[in-house]
Amino acid sequence: MDIFAKDTIAAYATAATRGAVAVLRVSGGDSLRILKALTGRGAFEARHAYLVKIHDGKDILDTAVALYYQGPASYTGEDSFELSVHAGEYIKARLLELVFLLGARMAEAGEFTMRAYLNGKMDLAQAQGVADIIAAKNKSAHRAAFNILDGSLSERFKEIRAGLTELLAKIEVRIDDADDEMAPLPEVETREYIDGIIKKLEALSSTFGAGRLVKEGIKTAIVGVPNSGKSSLLNALLGFDRVIVSPVSGTTRDTVDASLRIKDFNLMLTDTAGIRADHADDAEAQGIERSRKAMNNADIIIFLADSDLDAKAQADILAQAQATGKKVLKVLNKTDLKSEGEISQSGEYDCLISCKSGAGIEALKDKIIEAIGLAKLGDDDILITSAAHYKALKDAERELNRAKARLKELELMAEHIRSAVLSLRRLIGEITPDDVLGEIFSKFCVGK
């Protein structure tokens, strides 16, 4: 992608699916000329809707609603327009062809948003928010993306950068003070100042775990010995029969995946094959190996127990789950078959359920969200959802810790602070190599 291309681009901003209306977006210096040529209309006032006819030679292709935006007061910062037409396949294909004949070209993936970034309509963090808000599958992901798109995250970055720039100025003026006319930099106050900025960076970077789960979903593995009720639990959580349930040991030979929304969070559930040492055949052995892989890849593991089954085998599986370092919820199943005495002695478990009766299933859903650390998220919480943002924040933290160790060596201290500022400038795209920009925006959809 040529990030400095200034030719006029066009693409549909609506999905290529069956629908009533399609929106064609055009941006670039020739936008107004192309719009006038398509419609035969002599003038357009910016940000006013017009009912127009699209001309195809002597024929009328369609009746449309036209909106003209005069740069820089547009999404891209350039002259642009949008045409809302009937979403017939022929109309869409012919309209795009006419626009190309009038001098536009097909937009590349993310090119509209990249032009918005290059023209100063948004910074790089906000551009990532555009992609995230389109991809959001639930309210939590939408709120996290919106807080990035509206500039809240960028303001935090800029606030921290401004503090570092102010400190850097104080250091550099002393470096240039060859006659020692200025008082030395106060070490205690400077260390405290840097610590305050490090805490702000840590507060942001610490949200990455929750941000990733909100954005990508919570990978949840259900593990246990054969016949503990793992498939029944998956079905109970989903509210319908996704997996065949059988009393025959080893029925589930492979992992089974399903998605579930709980309290505006997405769960990717994985029902695993029962883990046992004396597996029947190679197929079951492969299923058990995939169960172990699912545990290692999970964000949270539900260890499903049945007090009537082999205690040692269950203890071994629990140990394997805990050895992954992931959060493990210990859940006792089949409580409908247990006596009050057995239930009263089940304090070692996080949740008591019955897949058959449904008892405890809703409580388990709450436990999952609570255990993963998402229960107290607010709508206004700013979350780091990008691995690149997380890395840049950690890089800045590292450089500031190095700067603290060089309080008596101003030149070296200044160099570390410059590196921290550089990391923050990259976060909002003030310094970003062209090839990196091309990679970022190529992940957007065409038309955005």
Give me the secondary-structure topology.
Elements: E1 9-12, E2 21-27, H1 31-39, E3 49-56, E4 59-69, E5 80-86, H2 89-101, E6 105-106, H3 111-118, H4 124-135, H5 139-149, H6 152-175, H7 187-205, H8 208-216, E7 218-223, H9 230-238, E8 256-262, E9 265-271, H10 282-297, E10 300-305, H11 311-323, E11 327-332, H12 340-344, E12 351-352, H13 361-371, H14 387-404, H15 410-427, H16 434-441
Structure description:
- It is built from 16 helices and twelve strands.
- With 448 residues, it is of the alpha/beta class.
- The chain has three domains: 9-123, Probable tRNA modification gtpase trme, domain 1 (Gyrase A, domain 2), CATH 3.30.1360; 136-207 and 383-429, Four Helix Bundle (Hemerythrin (Met), subunit A); 216-371, P-loop containing nucleotide triphosphate hydrolases (Rossmann fold), CATH 3.40.50.
- The strands form two sheets. Strands 3-4-5-2-1-6 form a six-stranded mixed sheet, covered by helices on one side. Strands 8-9-7-10-11-12 form a six-stranded mixed sheet, sandwiched between helices.
- Helix 4 packs antiparallel against helix 5, helix 7 packs antiparallel against helix 14 (387-404) and helix 14 (387-404) runs antiparallel to helix 15.
- The model has no long low-confidence stretch (mean pLDDT 84).
